[in-house]
Each structure stands twice: as structure tokens, then as C-alpha cells.
Amino acid sequence: MADKTRFPTLRRRDVLTAAAGVASVAMLDSRAEAEAVDEAISAAGVNPHSVMKGRTMDVRGRDGMYVRMPRLDMESKGNFLAGLYVWRLHTLEKTADVRIRQIMAENGIDDETDMPWEEAVALVEADPIVAMTGRARHSHQKLKYAMLQREYHKLADEFLGEMARADKLGPGTLELNPSMRLPKYTTHEIHSMPGGYVGDPFAGHMYHAGTDLGAYVDTNFQDGVHMRMAEAAAVPEDGKVRRILDLGTSIGQFATSMKRSYPDAEVWGIDVGGPMVRYAHMKAVDMGVEVNFAQRLCEDTGFPDEHFDIVTSNLLFHEVKKQAAVDIIRETYRVLRPGGVFSPTDANDPHQTAHAKFTWWYNYRWNHEDWFLDWMEVDFTGEMQRAGFKVVEVAKKRGLRPRWIGIKV
Ligand SMILES: C[S@@+](CC[C@H](N)C(=O)[O-])C[C@H]1O[C@@H](n2cnc3c(N)ncnc32)[C@H](O)[C@@H]1O
Q: What is the pLDDT of residues 368-379, one digit of tens each?
């Protein structure tokens, strides 16, 4: 667990702590509150950038590594959304699952066959229970991100100040490339996140909070999922792990988990999203974990040939175009040393239930998973082999173990 005394970045809570008497403004509306905080800070003669060191308390505190939402009303909305997500997953989706199996049975179709997704969708999408479940998923995403974007932007100065301060701190490094050419396919509003990974300064904040209130409810606060993935990571046969690269690192959870599992290794996390690696760096600074984050393209990493012992990626490939997937595999082969291991995790198993196919189609159609159908067409094992990898494992389903393990021969 992270040590509270090791969080040197500027947080709104710290500003509040430094500003004596400000607690009473908590009941005011947000604009008045923000103004009152600013006034109190300047009245107290406090430079917000100097109040971090040596502090002993947070006003709103943390849940494990996770910085609590900046305001209680935001946290309540978050809790409501997390509850809605769990209810949909455990109640609505299960009901839809029964219904979809019924529809398949009525049509004499084995649910586990390799039925094309178009056929699965056509059979089930008009069913009211199925349609309501899809709609609930869609509305949850929209509500969640609208709330998060609004709230982070309301407190933009504080959050930007916090990141600017962390930019310069270690132990790891941060490389931003604001003039980098962004391939068009990386610029859409992926899974309904406003601005996507590259277009909003708080993309990292929204991604972290968004996954807490959705995909990873209750398993994200300690990077639990990513730590278990790191513990299950494939390593080269000779056991030498000196350098690790995490592709599409997002907010760096896998990269920092790998560093915690292999403390002697030099670890890099790269991502096309500047705001993503910026947040990743701030989070790693908070944790005191030494990882180098860089805004770079996975298909053009800029690292020397044969540089890494392990390259990981989690959930990157379903979010890139087909050709980019091929290019990234080839680039990975280039930067791995002979005997090095590439262990990507993602979902493109064609042997899925009709329900799973419908869900992915819905995500593609309504949740801006624009490249998911592209991804379903990628012969990933074949592409790895064509790049030169010896593929030693293809797990049946996505899980904490990588779905593919390829060795550079
Ligand atoms: C679903 S997220 C990955 C989640 C993360 N690996 C984890 O385990 O939490 C996909 C990430 O890939 C990044 N990405 C997509 N295309 C990329 C590319 N061509 N080069 C670098 N990063 C890319 C996105 O910016 C995004 O942060």
C-alpha cells in the first residue's frame, strides 16, 4: 500500500488543508466554492505549490492508491454509477443471457457456434430485454463520462497544477511529445470518453475514475487486476529480465505493476495519449515507483533493436486498426532481444456466445469501439508467426494470463 507521506503532488485537498476555515464553503455551489478556496489561499498567503511537503493529512483522502473524488457530491454520483454498473452486470446481463439463449434455442442454433456477429445481432437486437440491457450499458457510459469531464474541468486549475508539478518529479521520467503526429485512428472518442485518449487534458483522470466506476469496479483501487497480471507474466526462458516495455500503457497500471514485480528491471510504458502518460507518471510518482513513461507510437517506438527482454500489452490491440496491429507486432519483434517474450492480452476469440457477440457489436456501434470489428478479423497468431515469433501459447479466453505468448527466435 502506498505511503501517505510520499505524495508530493499538489492536490485540491492540500490546498483546502492549507486554507484554514475553508471547510465551511463545502456546502456552497461549486463556482462559489472554488472562488472561496482561492480567496482563502491568497488571504493565508499560501503558495499552493509549496504546501505539499511534510503535510500529514488529506482532506478527502484516498481509497488505497486511488485519490478520492474531489467532492463528496461527485463521489456520491460515482457510487451511484458503480452501483448501476454492478446491477446491470449481475441482473440485467444475466436476464439478457437467458433470453438470448432462448432465442438461439427457438431458432435451432447452438449458442457456441461460430455464427457471424451480424447474424447474432439480427436475431437478438429487437428483443426488449436485450435492447434495454444494451441501452443501460450505453447510458451508463454517457452519464459517467459527462459527470467526470464536467467535474474535472470545474477544478481544472487545481488538477493541471497537480500534474504540472508531478511532471518534474521522479523517481521515473516523463516524455511528452506535443507536436507528435497522431494517426487519425487514435483520435476518436473511444468508448465514449470525451476527447478520447488524446483530446482532453484529463483523459487519464477520466480513464482511471471511469474504469473504477465501470469495468474494474472494486478491483482497481490497489491496481489489483494489473498486479495479478504482472505476477502471471511470461518471462524469458533464461530468466533474465533487465528491460520491460508496456505498449499502450494508458495510466501505467501494468507498467508500475511489472516494476513492482521486477524491481531491478528498467521499465517503460508508452502511449499515444499525452494526457494518459502524464497521469501515469503522476500516479507512479505518487506511488514512488520508478517507471519511465513516454508519449510515443507503438508502431514506431524509437527504441534500439533487441533492447527489451519482455514486451507486454493489455487491451491495446482491439483499439487499433488492422494494419496498425500488424505494424505493432513487427515493431515489437524488432525491439525484443532473441529469447525475449511478447505477451499481449486482448479478446478476439471468434468462439464466443451470441450474447458476447451482441455485446461487442453494441460497443462497436454505440460505444465508439471503432476498431473492434477490424480486430476480430486479425489473425493474431498468424501475424505473430509471420513477424518471426514462435507462438508457444494461445489461451482460449482473455484472462489474467496473456492470451498469446510469443518468443523471439
Ligand atoms: C484500453 S487502453 C489500454 C489499457 C492498459 N494497457 C491497461 O492495462 O490498463 C488502450 C491504450 O492504447 C493506447 N493506444 C492506442 N493506439 C496506440 C498506438 N498506436 N500507440 C500507442 N498507444 C496507443 C491508447 O491511447 C490507450 O491508452
A: 989 988 888 899
The CA angle 226-249-2, to the nearest 5 degrees, is 50
CATH of the domain at 310: 3.40.50.150
Count: domains in the chain: 1
- Is the CB of residue 387 below 6 angstroms from any atom belonging to ligand 1? no
Domain assignment present for residue 163? The answer is no
- Tens of pLDDT, residue by residue over 123-179, are 999 999 999 999 999 999 999 999 999 988 988 888 888 889 999 999 999 999 999
Ligand 1 centroid vs 17 CA: distance in angstroms? 36
- One-letter amino acid for residue 185 of the chain: Y
**Pocket of ligand 1 contains residue 316 by CB under 6 Å:** yes
Of 210, 231, 148, which Cα lies nearest the Cα of 401?
A: 231
Any ligand 1 atom below 6 A from CB of 245: no
Ligand 1 contact via 273 beta carbon (within 6 Å): yes
Report the C-alpha gap between 344 and 317 in whole angstroms.
8
